[in-house]
UDP-N-acetylglucosamine 1-carboxyvinyltransferase (Streptococcus cuniculipharyngis), 419 residues
Amino acid sequence: MRKIVINGGKSLKGHVAVSGAKNSVVALIPAIILADDIVTLDGVPAISDVDSLVEIIEIMGCQVKRSGETLEIDPRGVKNIPLPYGKINSLRASYYFYGSLLGRFAEATVGLPGGCDLGPRPIDLHLKAFEAMGAKVSYEGESMRLATDGQPLQGAHIYMDTVSVGATINTMIAATKAKGRTVIENAAREPEIIDVATLLNNMGAKIRGAGTDVISIEGVDSLHGTRHQVIPDRIEAGSYIAMAAAIGEGVHITNVLYEHLESFIAKLEEMGVRMTIDEDSVFVEKQEQLKAVSVKTSPYPGFATDLQQPITPLLLTAQGRGTIIDTIYEKRVNHVAEMARMGADITVTGGQIVYHAPNKLTGAPVKATDLRAGAALVTAGLMAEGTTEISNIEFILRGYSNIIEKLTALGADIKIIEE
Ligand code: UD1
């Protein structure tokens, strides 16, 4: 078993560069199997979710070359084989293969998706959209089969009952080669949706409106190769900004698109965090007394649910009482008990997180229960007096590119040990 060991109490100083967006790249890779030629991605993060997706598309017959942050995918030899439970189950985003296989072959058999345990994570909206486009859903053991009666998918008018990133992207991917026009109403507006639409359009798709709540897709017959730069990871950026505000003495975070982080930055400003924001970077100063604030998550451009856990340790450095309400995943609270073990005055009461700050944290053995809870525990460990040992670190490595190297360069005492 691998663990992250942190000797806390050392302040962070210097420069850290944000990597390409996890939630983009995990959709871009499955989308590429729709192409009839080579597609190259630049800015690909070194995370295990990418390793898993690369293994899956290689099994499907794609030729893949990976060098540093560049990933070249040749999907010309892709075969429609059942994608078994196992690898597929290791990540949530495997559900994007439903959309891309349906788009390419009008048929897909894929193991049920896994991912972080944030409470119930249904995929009914994805399935409703595929059914509207003519696919039928059936279950075979731990796999799901989606298939039309031999015809290509048909464009359809789809209203999303809930704003869903995954369902919006998946529908867009499936509709790219469908016959006729698909319209998605009440679409999610996250930057990763625009990134996927940009790649698909550069491959020859006809998608309009990505980034608004109505997206229209005119189906095309074929898609060509292209080269694409993955957008910066706004959640990784927010995580480092929160760490820098909690325990930094001047940290410059680069490759940040401020426009993707407006609600997060506004919340930090409300706390009194001092930052200098440039075109593509944020400099976080050493902080004086911060004010406790309450956080409520909502779909983009609201405060991201993925940043609720990473900001929690910073809130514990402030003065006062505050709450965190996650309206997207209300059971996304697994970091709370672990941080309480480190001495935080934080509880889950009546569907919300309540904290009283400031708190002095003490190093302890803790467990990362999901990706963003893991980021919260890393920050808490950096802040704490003494040694923190984090287990279940595979969750953290799924989404934070070179996190040990990046934090070490900032002056943290952090390492991975094998037990
Ligand atoms: C994506 C992100 C995840 C982020 C989440 C919300 C990826 C790989 N993951 O997850 O990091 O936390 O967006 O920003 O991009 N819902 C349904 N039915 C569905 C689909 C979703 O009811 O078919 C509900 C969910 O339970 C949740 C809400 O819709 O309450 C939003 O979920 P969604 O945006 O779909 O999350 P994911 O795409 O799974």
